[in-house]
Amino acid sequence: MELKIIDADFSVCQINDIKEVDFSREYVFVGKTDEELSLVCSTDSVPKDYITAEHGWKGFRVQGVLDFSLVGILSKLSAVLADSGISIFAVSTYNTDYILVKEDRLEEAAKILERNGFEVLL
Q1: What total number of domains does the chain contain?
Q2: Alpha carbon of 24 to those of 33, 40, 41, 85: distances in Å?
Q3: Radius of gyration over alpha carbons of the chain, in Å?
């Protein structure tokens, strides 16, 4: 399986108002529940009126379109990284999955994934 390192800096935020989200940007993931409104976006597009934000994330994209019948992709990725003490933030879209790791662990995460059979593309 191929993973592509995304050339962007990400932030994970809680926000007050979806109207402040710049949907014209390449990477914008919004999650809403009865308890919160969350945003994952490039760090340079974090809304100024956020509640809280965690900066310093880098991302991997699982390359290709994933069939809904596939089982265990996120599980394997997260287990491989967790076994090395690397926490992740996962985002899924209709087509594929994204794994975010803290910026200071990106190179280590890439090496661990490669040692475990994943092809990491720059």
Answers
A1: 1
A2: 23, 14, 11, 35
A3: 15
Q: Which residues contact 64 (CB under 8 A, 6 or more apart)?
A: 2, 96
SS3 state at 3: strand
Q: Are 119 and 1 in contact (CB under 8 A)?
A: yes
Let me know the angle formed at the C-alpha of 12 by 7 and 13, rounded to the nearest 5 degrees: 140
Find tokens 């310093």 and name the residue.
Answer: 56
Which residue in the block uniquely carries the two structure tokens 């809904």? 68
Which of 11, 8, 39, 36 has its CA nearest to residue 23?
39
Domain with 28, as residue range(s), is 2-121
Residue in 17, 20, 16, 12 with CA at minimum distance from that of residue 43: 12
pLDDT in tens, 7-65: 999 999 999 999 999 999 999 999 999 999 999 999 999 999 999 999 999 999 998 66
- CATH number for the domain spanning 68: value is 3.30.2130.10
First to last CA, the chain: 14
